[in-house]
Automatic annotation (TrEMBL):
It comes from Zhihengliuella flava. This is MFS family permease. PANTHER family: RESISTANCE PROTEIN MDTM, PUTATIVE-RELATED-RELATED. PROSITE patterns: MFS. GO terms for cellular component: plasma membrane.
Protein backbone atom coordinates (compact mmCIF):
# COMPACT_ATOMS: atom_id res chain seq x y z
CA UNK A 1 0.00 0.00 0.00
CA UNK A 2 2.90 2.35 0.64
CA UNK A 3 3.78 2.52 -3.05
CA UNK A 4 0.29 3.86 -3.83
CA UNK A 5 1.04 6.94 -1.73
CA UNK A 6 3.94 7.95 -3.97
CA UNK A 7 3.50 11.45 -5.38
CA UNK A 8 5.33 14.41 -6.84
CA UNK A 9 6.31 15.48 -3.32
CA UNK A 10 8.62 12.46 -3.27
CA UNK A 11 10.53 13.92 -6.22
CA UNK A 12 10.19 17.66 -5.60
CA UNK A 13 12.66 20.34 -6.58
CA UNK A 14 15.67 18.12 -5.88
CA UNK A 15 14.77 16.05 -8.95
CA UNK A 16 12.90 18.53 -11.13
CA UNK A 17 15.01 21.55 -10.14
CA UNK A 18 18.06 20.68 -12.26
CA UNK A 19 15.84 19.95 -15.26
CA UNK A 20 14.01 23.26 -14.90
CA UNK A 21 17.28 25.18 -14.59
CA UNK A 22 18.77 23.37 -17.58
CA UNK A 23 15.69 24.19 -19.67
CA UNK A 24 15.89 27.85 -18.64
CA UNK A 25 19.54 27.98 -19.72
CA UNK A 26 18.88 26.38 -23.08
CA UNK A 27 15.76 28.47 -23.65
CA UNK A 28 17.75 31.63 -22.95
CA UNK A 29 20.19 31.09 -25.81
CA UNK A 30 18.08 29.42 -28.51
CA UNK A 31 16.51 32.63 -29.89
CA UNK A 32 19.89 34.39 -30.18
CA UNK A 33 22.23 31.71 -31.58
CA UNK A 34 21.65 32.78 -35.18
CA UNK A 35 22.08 36.45 -34.24
CA UNK A 36 25.32 35.64 -32.42
CA UNK A 37 26.63 33.80 -35.47
CA UNK A 38 25.87 36.81 -37.66
CA UNK A 39 27.54 39.05 -35.10
CA UNK A 40 30.83 37.15 -35.40
CA UNK A 41 30.81 37.23 -39.20
CA UNK A 42 28.82 34.17 -40.33
CA UNK A 43 26.64 34.38 -43.43
CA UNK A 44 22.89 33.86 -43.20
CA UNK A 45 23.29 30.23 -44.32
CA UNK A 46 26.17 29.78 -41.88
CA UNK A 47 24.11 31.20 -39.04
CA UNK A 48 21.33 28.72 -39.79
CA UNK A 49 23.92 25.92 -39.72
CA UNK A 50 25.21 27.01 -36.31
CA UNK A 51 21.66 26.80 -34.91
CA UNK A 52 21.39 23.16 -36.06
CA UNK A 53 24.52 22.24 -34.09
CA UNK A 54 22.44 21.89 -30.90
CA UNK A 55 20.51 19.05 -32.54
CA UNK A 56 23.59 17.63 -34.26
CA UNK A 57 25.50 17.53 -30.98
CA UNK A 58 22.63 15.74 -29.28
CA UNK A 59 22.30 13.20 -32.08
CA UNK A 60 25.98 12.24 -32.28
CA UNK A 61 26.28 12.00 -28.49
CA UNK A 62 23.27 9.75 -27.81
CA UNK A 63 25.16 6.45 -27.93
CA UNK A 64 28.19 7.72 -25.94
CA UNK A 65 25.73 9.29 -23.47
CA UNK A 66 24.18 5.87 -22.87
CA UNK A 67 27.58 4.30 -22.24
CA UNK A 68 28.66 7.12 -19.90
CA UNK A 69 25.42 6.97 -17.90
CA UNK A 70 25.64 3.19 -17.61
CA UNK A 71 29.25 3.48 -16.44
CA UNK A 72 29.05 6.35 -13.97
CA UNK A 73 25.38 6.53 -12.99
CA UNK A 74 22.55 8.98 -13.62
CA UNK A 75 23.26 11.59 -10.94
CA UNK A 76 26.99 12.07 -11.71
CA UNK A 77 26.18 12.17 -15.43
CA UNK A 78 23.64 14.97 -14.95
CA UNK A 79 26.09 17.00 -12.88
CA UNK A 80 28.92 16.53 -15.39
CA UNK A 81 26.65 17.35 -18.34
CA UNK A 82 25.46 20.59 -16.74
CA UNK A 83 29.09 21.53 -16.10
CA UNK A 84 30.04 20.78 -19.71
CA UNK A 85 27.11 22.88 -20.95
CA UNK A 86 28.36 25.76 -18.78
CA UNK A 87 31.76 25.47 -20.49
CA UNK A 88 30.02 25.58 -23.86
CA UNK A 89 28.21 28.76 -22.81
CA UNK A 90 31.53 30.24 -21.73
CA UNK A 91 33.05 29.46 -25.12
CA UNK A 92 30.13 31.21 -26.82
CA UNK A 93 30.64 34.29 -24.63
CA UNK A 94 34.34 34.41 -25.48
CA UNK A 95 33.82 33.67 -29.20
CA UNK A 96 35.17 36.21 -31.65
CA UNK A 97 34.66 34.06 -34.73
CA UNK A 98 32.14 31.53 -36.00
CA UNK A 99 34.43 28.54 -35.36
CA UNK A 100 34.69 29.09 -31.59
CA UNK A 101 30.97 29.87 -31.38
CA UNK A 102 30.16 26.67 -33.29
CA UNK A 103 32.32 24.61 -30.94
CA UNK A 104 30.56 26.11 -27.92
CA UNK A 105 27.09 25.44 -29.34
CA UNK A 106 28.09 21.89 -30.34
CA UNK A 107 29.29 21.22 -26.78
CA UNK A 108 25.97 22.50 -25.42
CA UNK A 109 24.12 20.08 -27.70
CA UNK A 110 26.33 17.14 -26.74
CA UNK A 111 25.97 17.91 -23.04
CA UNK A 112 22.21 18.10 -23.49
CA UNK A 113 22.17 14.54 -24.81
CA UNK A 114 23.90 13.24 -21.67
CA UNK A 115 21.74 15.33 -19.33
CA UNK A 116 18.46 14.36 -20.99
CA UNK A 117 19.23 10.66 -21.09
CA UNK A 118 20.48 10.58 -17.51
CA UNK A 119 17.42 12.35 -16.07
CA UNK A 120 15.05 10.09 -18.04
CA UNK A 121 16.86 6.99 -16.84
CA UNK A 122 16.86 8.38 -13.29
CA UNK A 123 13.10 8.91 -13.22
CA UNK A 124 12.45 5.53 -14.81
CA UNK A 125 14.38 3.92 -11.95
CA UNK A 126 13.17 6.13 -9.10
CA UNK A 127 9.43 6.23 -9.84
CA UNK A 128 7.01 3.31 -9.31
CA UNK A 129 5.42 2.03 -12.51
CA UNK A 130 1.92 3.16 -11.56
CA UNK A 131 3.12 6.80 -11.31
CA UNK A 132 5.65 6.79 -14.15
CA UNK A 133 3.66 8.69 -16.79
CA UNK A 134 2.74 11.50 -14.38
CA UNK A 135 6.38 11.84 -13.38
CA UNK A 136 7.51 11.92 -17.01
CA UNK A 137 4.77 14.34 -18.11
CA UNK A 138 5.68 16.64 -15.21
CA UNK A 139 9.28 16.50 -16.39
CA UNK A 140 8.08 17.45 -19.86
CA UNK A 141 6.10 20.29 -18.30
CA UNK A 142 9.14 21.65 -16.49
CA UNK A 143 11.06 21.64 -19.76
CA UNK A 144 8.30 23.60 -21.48
CA UNK A 145 8.14 26.10 -18.61
CA UNK A 146 11.91 26.56 -18.63
CA UNK A 147 11.98 27.05 -22.40
CA UNK A 148 9.18 29.62 -22.05
CA UNK A 149 10.79 31.57 -19.19
CA UNK A 150 14.39 31.47 -20.44
CA UNK A 151 14.02 33.98 -23.30
CA UNK A 152 12.37 36.54 -21.00
CA UNK A 153 15.24 36.33 -18.49
CA UNK A 154 17.70 36.56 -21.36
CA UNK A 155 15.95 39.65 -22.71
CA UNK A 156 16.50 41.39 -19.37
CA UNK A 157 20.18 40.45 -19.34
CA UNK A 158 20.74 41.52 -22.94
CA UNK A 159 19.59 45.08 -22.23
CA UNK A 160 22.89 45.97 -20.48
CA UNK A 161 25.13 43.19 -21.85
CA UNK A 162 24.08 42.74 -25.46
CA UNK A 163 23.86 39.27 -27.03
CA UNK A 164 26.37 37.95 -24.49
CA UNK A 165 23.76 38.50 -21.78
CA UNK A 166 21.75 35.51 -23.03
CA UNK A 167 24.81 33.26 -22.70
CA UNK A 168 25.57 34.59 -19.22
CA UNK A 169 22.02 33.60 -18.23
CA UNK A 170 22.63 30.20 -19.80
CA UNK A 171 25.95 29.78 -18.01
CA UNK A 172 24.44 30.74 -14.65
CA UNK A 173 21.51 28.37 -15.13
CA UNK A 174 23.82 25.47 -16.04
CA UNK A 175 26.07 26.06 -13.04
CA UNK A 176 22.99 26.22 -10.82
CA UNK A 177 21.71 22.97 -12.34
CA UNK A 178 25.03 21.28 -11.58
CA UNK A 179 25.02 22.56 -7.99
CA UNK A 180 21.43 21.50 -7.34
CA UNK A 181 22.32 18.14 -8.88
CA UNK A 182 24.45 17.36 -5.83
CA UNK A 183 21.23 17.32 -3.78
CA UNK A 184 19.56 14.80 -6.09
CA UNK A 185 19.28 11.53 -4.12
CA UNK A 186 21.70 8.92 -5.42
CA UNK A 187 20.08 5.76 -6.79
CA UNK A 188 21.26 2.38 -5.53
CA UNK A 189 23.53 0.65 -8.01
CA UNK A 190 22.64 -3.04 -7.78
CA UNK A 191 25.18 -5.61 -8.87
CA UNK A 192 25.05 -7.46 -12.14
CA UNK A 193 23.32 -10.48 -10.61
CA UNK A 194 20.61 -8.38 -9.02
CA UNK A 195 20.08 -6.52 -12.26
CA UNK A 196 19.85 -9.78 -14.16
CA UNK A 197 17.11 -10.99 -11.81
CA UNK A 198 15.07 -7.87 -12.54
CA UNK A 199 15.34 -8.17 -16.34
CA UNK A 200 12.09 -8.87 -18.17
CA UNK A 201 11.00 -8.99 -21.76
CA UNK A 202 10.07 -5.69 -23.29
CA UNK A 203 6.28 -5.31 -23.46
CA UNK A 204 5.08 -5.91 -26.97
CA UNK A 205 8.27 -7.54 -28.23
CA UNK A 206 11.89 -8.26 -27.53
CA UNK A 207 13.52 -10.93 -25.43
CA UNK A 208 15.73 -10.38 -22.40
CA UNK A 209 19.11 -9.29 -23.68
CA UNK A 210 22.08 -11.52 -22.98
CA UNK A 211 24.46 -8.55 -22.84
CA UNK A 212 24.50 -4.87 -22.04
CA UNK A 213 26.44 -3.50 -25.02
CA UNK A 214 24.56 -1.20 -27.38
CA UNK A 215 24.73 -3.83 -30.11
CA UNK A 216 23.29 -6.53 -27.85
CA UNK A 217 20.43 -4.31 -26.71
CA UNK A 218 19.50 -3.23 -30.26
CA UNK A 219 19.67 -6.85 -31.43
CA UNK A 220 17.44 -8.03 -28.58
CA UNK A 221 14.85 -5.26 -28.88
CA UNK A 222 14.84 -4.53 -32.61
CA UNK A 223 11.13 -5.35 -32.87
CA UNK A 224 10.32 -2.70 -30.26
CA UNK A 225 12.44 -0.12 -32.06
CA UNK A 226 10.87 -1.05 -35.40
CA UNK A 227 7.25 -0.90 -34.19
CA UNK A 228 6.68 1.48 -31.29
CA UNK A 229 9.97 3.20 -32.10
CA UNK A 230 8.62 4.04 -35.57
CA UNK A 231 5.69 5.82 -33.95
CA UNK A 232 8.06 7.74 -31.71
CA UNK A 233 10.15 8.75 -34.73
CA UNK A 234 7.06 10.02 -36.58
CA UNK A 235 5.83 11.90 -33.49
CA UNK A 236 9.20 13.64 -33.13
CA UNK A 237 9.11 14.48 -36.83
CA UNK A 238 5.68 16.15 -36.53
CA UNK A 239 6.51 17.96 -33.29
CA UNK A 240 9.65 19.52 -34.75
CA UNK A 241 7.74 20.86 -37.76
CA UNK A 242 5.19 22.50 -35.45
CA UNK A 243 7.90 24.95 -34.40
CA UNK A 244 8.54 25.77 -38.07
CA UNK A 245 5.07 25.72 -39.59
CA UNK A 246 3.30 28.19 -37.29
CA UNK A 247 5.80 31.04 -37.80
CA UNK A 248 6.07 30.36 -41.55
CA UNK A 249 2.31 30.29 -42.09
CA UNK A 250 1.93 33.44 -39.99
CA UNK A 251 4.29 35.16 -42.41
CA UNK A 252 2.50 33.56 -45.39
CA UNK A 253 -0.85 35.14 -44.44
CA UNK A 254 0.77 38.51 -43.77
CA UNK A 255 0.83 38.70 -39.97
CA UNK A 256 3.34 41.09 -38.44
CA UNK A 257 6.00 39.58 -36.13
CA UNK A 258 4.15 40.61 -32.96
CA UNK A 259 0.97 38.76 -33.99
CA UNK A 260 3.02 35.76 -35.14
CA UNK A 261 4.65 35.64 -31.70
CA UNK A 262 1.18 35.85 -30.10
CA UNK A 263 -0.04 32.85 -32.12
CA UNK A 264 3.03 30.84 -31.13
CA UNK A 265 2.71 31.92 -27.50
CA UNK A 266 -0.97 30.91 -27.27
CA UNK A 267 -0.16 27.51 -28.73
CA UNK A 268 2.66 27.05 -26.20
CA UNK A 269 0.48 28.17 -23.29
CA UNK A 270 -2.24 25.62 -24.12
CA UNK A 271 0.49 23.00 -24.46
CA UNK A 272 1.78 23.69 -20.93
CA UNK A 273 -1.68 23.66 -19.32
CA UNK A 274 -2.44 20.00 -20.04
CA UNK A 275 0.86 18.28 -19.16
CA UNK A 276 -0.25 16.81 -15.82
CA UNK A 277 -3.71 15.60 -16.96
CA UNK A 278 -1.93 13.91 -19.88
CA UNK A 279 0.25 11.94 -17.48
CA UNK A 280 -2.74 10.99 -15.35
CA UNK A 281 -4.57 9.65 -18.40
CA UNK A 282 -1.54 7.54 -19.32
CA UNK A 283 -1.22 6.09 -15.82
CA UNK A 284 -4.93 5.47 -15.30
CA UNK A 285 -6.02 4.17 -18.70
CA UNK A 286 -2.91 3.35 -20.71
CA UNK A 287 -0.34 4.99 -22.97
CA UNK A 288 -2.38 4.57 -26.14
CA UNK A 289 -5.04 6.97 -24.84
CA UNK A 290 -2.48 9.76 -24.83
CA UNK A 291 -0.34 8.86 -27.83
CA UNK A 292 -3.18 8.39 -30.34
CA UNK A 293 -5.11 11.62 -29.55
CA UNK A 294 -1.82 13.54 -29.49
CA UNK A 295 -0.79 12.58 -33.03
CA UNK A 296 -4.36 12.65 -34.35
CA UNK A 297 -4.93 16.24 -33.20
CA UNK A 298 -1.51 17.30 -34.46
CA UNK A 299 -2.39 15.82 -37.85
CA UNK A 300 -5.82 17.45 -37.96
CA UNK A 301 -4.44 20.85 -36.96
CA UNK A 302 -1.71 20.56 -39.60
CA UNK A 303 -4.34 19.75 -42.22
CA UNK A 304 -6.35 22.82 -41.18
CA UNK A 305 -3.46 25.27 -41.48
CA UNK A 306 -3.66 25.67 -45.29
CA UNK A 307 -7.33 26.68 -44.86
CA UNK A 308 -6.47 29.56 -42.52
CA UNK A 309 -6.09 33.08 -43.84
CA UNK A 310 -6.32 35.37 -40.79
CA UNK A 311 -5.02 35.74 -37.26
CA UNK A 312 -8.17 34.40 -35.55
CA UNK A 313 -8.19 31.22 -37.55
CA UNK A 314 -4.49 30.69 -36.91
CA UNK A 315 -5.00 31.32 -33.18
CA UNK A 316 -7.63 28.57 -33.00
CA UNK A 317 -5.58 26.13 -35.06
CA UNK A 318 -2.48 26.94 -33.00
CA UNK A 319 -4.42 26.33 -29.79
CA UNK A 320 -5.65 22.96 -31.15
CA UNK A 321 -2.09 22.09 -32.10
CA UNK A 322 -0.85 23.03 -28.63
CA UNK A 323 -3.62 20.97 -27.00
CA UNK A 324 -2.75 17.94 -29.11
CA UNK A 325 0.95 18.28 -28.40
CA UNK A 326 0.25 18.77 -24.69
CA UNK A 327 -1.76 15.54 -24.57
CA UNK A 328 1.44 13.76 -25.46
CA UNK A 329 3.64 15.47 -22.88
CA UNK A 330 6.15 12.92 -21.66
CA UNK A 331 4.84 10.12 -23.91
CA UNK A 332 8.21 9.52 -25.61
CA UNK A 333 10.06 9.35 -22.29
CA UNK A 334 7.31 7.22 -20.72
CA UNK A 335 7.32 4.68 -23.54
CA UNK A 336 11.09 4.53 -23.46
CA UNK A 337 11.01 3.82 -19.72
CA UNK A 338 8.25 1.22 -20.19
CA UNK A 339 10.11 -0.79 -22.79
CA UNK A 340 13.66 -0.40 -21.45
CA UNK A 341 15.12 -3.50 -19.75
CA UNK A 342 15.97 -2.80 -16.13
CA UNK A 343 19.52 -4.19 -16.43
CA UNK A 344 20.44 -1.97 -19.41
CA UNK A 345 18.12 1.01 -19.26
CA UNK A 346 20.65 3.69 -20.34
CA UNK A 347 21.76 1.63 -23.33
CA UNK A 348 18.18 1.08 -24.49
CA UNK A 349 17.30 4.75 -24.02
CA UNK A 350 20.42 5.82 -25.89
CA UNK A 351 19.15 4.31 -29.14
CA UNK A 352 15.61 5.42 -28.29
CA UNK A 353 16.89 8.99 -28.27
CA UNK A 354 18.62 8.41 -31.61
CA UNK A 355 15.16 7.74 -33.06
CA UNK A 356 13.61 10.86 -31.53
CA UNK A 357 16.50 13.17 -32.42
CA UNK A 358 16.53 11.82 -35.97
CA UNK A 359 12.81 12.51 -36.27
CA UNK A 360 13.27 16.06 -35.01
CA UNK A 361 15.89 16.72 -37.68
CA UNK A 362 14.01 15.00 -40.52
CA UNK A 363 10.67 16.81 -40.00
CA UNK A 364 11.81 20.35 -40.91
CA UNK A 365 13.85 18.93 -43.80
CA UNK A 366 10.68 17.37 -45.24
CA UNK A 367 8.83 20.69 -45.00
CA UNK A 368 11.76 22.52 -46.59
CA UNK A 369 12.16 20.02 -49.43
CA UNK A 370 8.46 19.81 -50.32
CA UNK A 371 8.06 23.58 -50.08
CA UNK A 372 10.98 24.05 -52.47
CA UNK A 373 9.49 21.83 -55.19
CA UNK A 374 5.80 22.56 -54.53
CA UNK A 375 4.45 24.98 -51.89
CA UNK A 376 4.34 25.56 -48.16
CA UNK A 377 0.73 24.33 -48.05
CA UNK A 378 1.81 21.07 -49.69
CA UNK A 379 4.66 20.67 -47.22
CA UNK A 380 2.27 21.14 -44.30
CA UNK A 381 -0.17 18.58 -45.75
CA UNK A 382 2.64 16.04 -46.11
CA UNK A 383 3.37 16.42 -42.39
CA UNK A 384 -0.35 16.00 -41.66
CA UNK A 385 -0.20 12.66 -43.48
CA UNK A 386 2.91 11.70 -41.50
CA UNK A 387 0.98 12.45 -38.28
CA UNK A 388 -1.94 10.24 -39.37
CA UNK A 389 0.44 7.39 -40.23
CA UNK A 390 1.99 7.75 -36.76
CA UNK A 391 -1.50 7.66 -35.25
CA UNK A 392 -2.10 4.33 -36.93
CA UNK A 393 1.23 2.94 -35.73
CA UNK A 394 0.47 3.80 -32.12
CA UNK A 395 -3.15 2.60 -32.37
CA UNK A 396 -1.99 -0.77 -33.67
CA UNK A 397 1.07 -1.47 -31.54
CA UNK A 398 0.37 0.11 -28.15
CA UNK A 399 -1.61 -2.02 -25.67
CA UNK A 400 -5.08 -0.85 -24.60
CA UNK A 401 -4.46 -1.69 -20.96
CA UNK A 402 -2.62 0.03 -18.13
CA UNK A 403 1.07 -0.91 -17.92
Amino acid sequence: MASREFGLRDLGLKVYGPSLLYAVGLGAIMPVIALSARDVGASVAGAALVVTLVGVGSLIMNVPAALLTARFGERPSMIAAAGAAALGMGAAIAARDAVVLSVGILVVGMAGSVFNLARQSYLAEAVPGHFRARAMSTLGGTLRIGAFVGPFIAAGAMAPLGLAGAYWVGLGAMVAAAVVGFWVPELPRPGAAARSDRTTSAPGGGAPASGTSMGAIVAAYWRTYLTVGSGVFLLACVRATRNVVLPLWSEHVGLDPALAALVYGVSGAVDVLVFYPAGKVMDRFGRVYSAVPCLLLLGVSMALIPLVSDVWGLLWVGALMGFGNGLGTGIVMTLGADYAPAHARPQFLGFWRVLTDSGMMVGPVIVSGVTTVASLATGVMVIAVVALVGTGVFAYYLPRTRP
